[in-house]
Amino acid sequence: MAVQAILLDIEGTTTPIAFVHTTLFGYARARVQEFLERHEADPDVQSDIALLRAEHAAESPPPNPPMASVSAYVHWLIDHDRKSTGLKSLQGKIWHEGYGAAELVGELYPDVALALKRWQERGTDIAIFSSGSVQAQRDLFAHSTTGDLTPLIHAYFDTTTGPKSAPQSYSGIAAVLGHPPASVLFVSDVAAELDAAQGAGMQTRLCVRGPNAPAAHGHLVIHSFDDL
Predict the structure, then answer these.
(1) What CATH code is assigned to 5-16+107-227?
(2) CA dihedral angle for residue 221, residue 168, residue 115, residue 108, rounded to 10 degrees
(3) pLDDT tens sequence across 133-189
(4) By CB neighbour count within 10 A (0-12 exposed, 13-18 middle, 19+ buried), where does 212 fall?
(5) How many alpha carbons lie under 13 Å from residue 194 in its C-beta half-sphere?
(6) How would you label 95-122 residue by residue, b for 16+ Cβ within 10 Å and e otherwise?
């Protein structure tokens, strides 16, 4: 079926992994305690804190060593690259301030902006599905190295949609986009996510950036959005 929508992962697909793990994670890690102190009365931040406390209480076994504070637990989650909804929401708020202060600029691979424009001109809907919060996604593309690209993006989806490893997450995304799953192409650098999308009936491409050869996976490979 002809592709009517393209669904994109971010980390390793539109954006270098090092930017996420070093720049963004490092920025949030260094500022979380001060941010919590400044925004302790903010209801949205309180919601994030409540979610983090609930997640911490549900950890089995508990993190070792025991967490002394919310910020310490946030550090632990970042260090373990956990896909925690509470963490991602709080990080998005911290990064929002960083983008607004021009301390952060969203890094994209060189082929991304031109591809987004090319696809939009073809009438193809473009959406994002990332473990980062919707706010974090919007800010990255709004403050990118190639300017504000948000007018090119139709929709954003994060962990509140469901796990990226679950086929039902992709079925739900296709329903929101208003397209049959078979007409949606999902592009990611993680084969397990592509397996889930394929399980929902989507078309898939494994995005392999750089010289590394992909492991066996059963998905067609691209090395640049120019390949699409």
Answers:
(1) 3.40.50.1000
(2) -90
(3) 999 999 999 999 999 999 999 999 999 999 999 999 999 999 999 999 999 999 999
(4) exposed
(5) 20
(6) bbbbbeeeebebbbbebbbebbeebbee
- Within 8 A by CB and 6+ apart from 38, the residues are none
Domain ranges for the chain: 5-16+107-227, 19-100
- pLDDT, averaged across the chain: 94
Domain 19-100 has CATH 1.10.720: yes
Written as one letter, the residue type at 199 is G
Q: Give residue-wise pLDDT tens across range 67-108.
A: 678 999 999 999 999 989 999 999 999 999 999 999 999 999
Measure the CA–CA gap between 227 and 7, rounded to whole angstroms: 15
What pLDDT shows up at residue 210? 80
Measured CA to CA, the distance from residue 101 to residue 88 in angstroms comes to 20
User: For the whole prediction, is pTM greater than 0.70?
Assistant: yes
